[in-house]
Design a protein that fits this description.
Helix content: 25-40%
Number of domains: 3
Low-confidence stretches: 1-12, 100-114
Mean pLDDT: 83
Radius of gyration: 26 Å
Strand content: 25-35%
Length: 407
């Protein structure tokens, strides 16, 4: 009698796993990743169990029998679950025999040319200042008084003494004597040419953000706000539009220490949060909400970003900023905020570790390919933190709710 298709399939050997996919135990399950890639797969307990049992000499029936015994389910259910899990692994490319080549990272800057038009001596600049950003001491020089004074005001909380050695020279010079347009140079190389006056500050902010990210490339980087409470730190990872900047700006007026509103940098070795206290970018929809916390915000200069967004830039309140030279802080909690106007009240709910890790990975903003140490550090970070989701429509209500768990 011929064997049925289902029976033949159940006796077929399972797919051989490749040496290019690594497994790390986590919570009730595990994590799969390819070194050199940029993605993690978080597995629940049954999926992790199946992955760890995979053997080229085994078949589906044998694998299902072990799953049935481990999770106290019947053989038919186990066979169905094993089949679906293996199909999911295959769809995700986890059985591919080809090693994933490390993805190339696009250069964030396109250098146009070396340039020597910058006037020599202090008399050629309308504004000059020194400040410390992550991994660098920046000398800022600008021929335009209005834009230069505005940028200097926004980074004044990062100021350093004049004798500090300069590692980055950021200059704004006129494109030509007759034109009301401006060029931006970094260490003597032309980076932006022909910017309008209301584009200067956003261009400088983008350059500062990208160069800081590059200099923090050895850290875990997340698209997240980061605040301190006493000696502890809290991460607020969120997608664009999730309300993290608005929440961070408000919390900075309520006794929280401001580490960042956009880029959270975490040391892989000790899991401490590193300061990236750059000015906050406030979109029009957040201005009325934050006016209560920052009187006069509606009168702040409006700038045009390269992505077409009109924004106001906001430095952290006096005394609230974690300077670049401040020691890192241990992270106590990871909170995923989401502003939802239709939400009734504030919902702060505990989050499963597996879900928190998966969501945190999606908030990664580093283009550096993952290494084993990265994955182990992310797992240790989530395992050592309290994890929550926060949905709110009322900003002050969210602040008050956070105060109940971080007094």
């Amino acid at each position: 009698m011929e064997m049925t298709e289902a029976a033949a399939k159940s006796q077929a050997s399972v797919v051989t796993i490749t040496p290019f996919v690594h497994f790390v135990p986590f919570a009730d399950g595990g994590v799969l990743f390819r070194p050199g890639g940029r993605r993690l797969w978080v597995l629940n307990a049954p999926s992790a169990f199946i992955w760890c049992l995979l053997d080229p000499g085994d078949n589906l029936e044998g694998l299902a029998s072990r799953v049935a015994a481990r999770f106290a389910i019947d053989q038919t259910t186990a066979l169905r679950d094993v089949t679906l899990t293996l199909e999911a692994f295959t769809k995700e490319g986890l059985f591919s025999a080809a090693e994933v080549e490390p993805a190339t990272v696009d250069q964030p800057f396109v250098w146009l040319e070396a340039d020597s038009r910058a006037p020599a001596g202090p008399g050629g600049w309308a504004v000059t200042t020194l400040f410390q950003a992550p991994g660098q001491v920046v000398e800022f020089l600008c021929q335009d008084l209005l834009a230069g004074a505005e940028f200097a005001r926004l980074v004044s909380h990062l100021g350093v003494a004049g004798q500090s050695p300069v590692t980055t020279r950021l200059a704004v010079a006129a494109t030509s004597p007759a034109a009301d347009s401006w060029d931006i140079l970094v260490n003597g190389s032309l980076l932006v040419t022909g910017a309008l006056r209301n584009e200067i500050v956003p261009q400088l902010m983008t350059i500062l953000f990208i160069r800081s990210s590059e200099l923090l490339a050895d850290k875990l980087l997340f698209h997240a706000a980061a605040l301190g409470r006493g000696e502890r730190a809290i991460l607020f990872p969120a997608e664009t539009g999730g309300g993290k900047t608005t929440l961070a700006a408000a919390l900075a007026t309520q006794g929280y220490l401001f580490y960042s509103d956009e880029l959270a940098a975490v040391d892989r070795s000790d899991l401490r949060l590193c300061p990236v206290a750059l000015p906050m970018s406030i979109k029009p929809g957040s201005v009325p909400v934050l006016e209560e916390y920052y009187p006069g915000l509606t009168d702040y200069p409006v700038h045009l970003r390269a992505d077409g967004q009109l924004v106001r830039y906001l430095p952290p309140p006096d005394g609230s900023s974690a300077g670049s030279d401040r020691p890192g802080a241990p992270i106590e909690a990871i909170i995923f905020p989401r502003y939802r106007p239709a939400t009734a009240g504030v919902e702060l709910l505990a989050m499963a570790k597996s879900s928190a890790l998966q969501t945190l990975c999606q908030a990664g903003s580093s283009d550096r390919p993952l290494e084993v140490a990265d994955v182990e550090a992310m797992i240790a970070l989530v395992e050592g933190c309290r994890c929550y989701t926060l949905e709110y429509a009322d900003l002050q209500g969210a602040i008050d709710r956070l105060a109940t768990i971080f007094p």
